Amino acid sequence: MLTLVHTALRRPWLVLFLIGLGSAFFLAGLFRLEVRTDGASLYPQGDATVDRTLADRERFAEPQQVILLATSRPGGPPLATPAGFRWISQVHAGLQALPVAQTFGVRSLANLVERPEGRTLTVHSYLDEIPDDPAAFGALMERIDRFPVARGLFLSPDGRTAAFYFLLPPDADRGRVIQELETWRARQGDAPDAPFDLRITGPVAAEAVLGEVVLRDLARLVPLMVAAIALLLLFTLRTPSGVLVPLAQVLAT
After folding, report:
1. Residues 164-214: pLDDT tens digits?
2. 175 phi and psi, to 5 degrees?
3. Phi/psi at 88 (5° precision)
4. Cβ–Cβ < 8 Å for 101, 166
5. Three-class SS state of 57
6. Which of 25, 35, 49, 197 has the largest count of CB atoms under 10 Å?
7. φ, ψ for residue 196 (rounded to 5)?
8. In angstroms, rounded to a whole number, what is the distance separating the alpha carbons of residues 58 and 183?
9. Which residues, 6+ apart, have CB-to-CB distance to 166 below 8 Å?
10. CA pair distance 84, 107, nearest whole angstrom
11. How many CB atoms are closer than 10 A to CB 193?
């Protein structure tokens, strides 16, 4: 170690040149780096968990989906009311009209096909007719309660939460789709007089939003970190080379 120190003191420019040459060699590898923010990137490459998950998705033809969750506001009426069901139908129609929904569409209580009972062959959705009469609406709720899929996946047991499943094609740009959904949602659900809250959720949305947040934080925090380290080096070493040489390593890191 002392030999290296003495060599650096005797020939500083040669040492700086060699360090710069080595740094340039390793810096060339930065152009091959890829920033990934999907859930699979949290696991090592070739991890069995990721491989099994992808295989299961292909086996069951599981589509990517963004979930929009509608909830009753505190102290407000539940969604399981005639007015709430009409609002669900209105939101469903608005989502279905978006250009990004034309491939696979939207699934919600508004287009969930009612399970036929008895000998009837009539096929219709639960919300094709939304009665105002309390007795007729109670009968509709009884039919919904008898179908666990309707009462579990599309409408919560307490009637205050409903889900819209926005299906995506396999090659969809998730970031662009979520941005369009967020723009549409802001027009629909952020008004102070809106009867219900509507927000975007689900694993696909979480991964896409997480990636945007990570990249935004990197773009803001990395320059601040480099500036702070440069000032610290300048105050302690008081030479340009004392700032540039360690800073090159910091930037590479």
Report:
1. 998 887 777 787 888 888 888 887 655 566 778 898 988 888 877 777 777
2. -60, -45
3. -60, -45
4. yes
5. helix
6. 197
7. -140, 155
8. 31
9. 65, 66, 67, 68, 95, 101, 106, 177, 181
10. 17
11. 4
